[in-house]
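Team,

Forwarding the record for the chain on the shared tracking sheet. I've put the sequence and predicted structure together so nobody has to dig through attachments.
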Amino acid sequence: MRTIILFILLCVKLTANTQPFKKEISFPEISSPTLVKVMLDNEIYAYSNHDFSDIRLKSTNETEGYFIQSVQQPKQVSTSKQLTASHYNRKKTTFLYIFAKPFDVETIILNIEDRNFESTFDVYADGTLLVKDVKIFDYSRETGNRNFTIHIPKTKTKELKIVYHLDKTTSFYKKYRNVEILTQYLSIKSIRCLNTNQSKKSHLLTTTIPLESNTLKEKKSTYFFKSNNIPFSKLTVMVDNKNFKRSAYLYASDNNTTWHLVTRFSLFASTFNHQLHHSVNVTTRAKYLKIDIENGDNKPLEISTINIETLPKNLYFIAQVNETYKLYFGDKKLPKPYYELESLVDSSTPTIKGVFSPIEKLKVQKKPIIEKKISFFEQHKKELFTVVILLTLGVMGYIAFILLRKH
């Protein structure tokens, strides 16, 4: 009878559910074994381990093999064209550039021979003003810094017109008594127009995360966000302010108590030179995020949300005809399984798409403790050890007593 009870308890232990979450998988009807791919969603990210070691795929009667793989990003292809001015109006300080056929332009690099100057530039595409008062400068005489690059909204154009404005009343020129030694007109030898195109549409998924809370202490603002373990490769801070330049620090945590530094980056925006930088490329996954921003003596930035961009991951498995499949996850203690399926297929293997159902919370069954039968000697070993010592001492005392009597 005891053996039967132990066997029953062992079966319960082996079949007890330790996974708190489940998702069913649906896919089109199949007539033969087929490779299925299902995109992991934010609910799975929220409750699974960082390495997905807890994920188990089960059919009706057994645990199935699977593998998880990131979606490949399209490659970026950069193209450029170098042009010399087809027309130059010195009086109106205007350069005209014409492409052989319409060309996508998003960056213009100026080949300027002059040094020690400060100017603003306007750029027109096919007669339409794209950017105005972009600051171009060369401070060789002062710091050695220079900027000969103009960023514009990506535009397909046949004709580019560039107009520059040399204002000799600026503080830069006022620093010198004899401004005649500084540039009177600019000599732009050529320009290089660039664009970056992707071979196909990006697969990145964007998730908007609202601000949980923020604090201000000693000229530093801290912004807290709950990212729910969603992995990401790019983070964009949505700042409402217009003109600023601040140092920022991104931290991550899994318990909202212990934080580790992920990266340091800069946030800046300027309506004067049309520059904007709110993003940082960084790969991480955490339940909580916080951003520290050094304000100095400036007002804190107004931040209400952040956007994170995630490279999707797909779960692959071979589905059998008339079989159903469920994904279980959430048990943090399970070791990561390794299956041979990934080595049996490649990118050319045909697949069909599956879909996860909404998350279902399960009742976790605690594994019963099977009591091991303890022998009489093991149960009373301390008492028996004491008796043995006493008997040994008694025997030794008796022997000593006999030897003393003989003498």
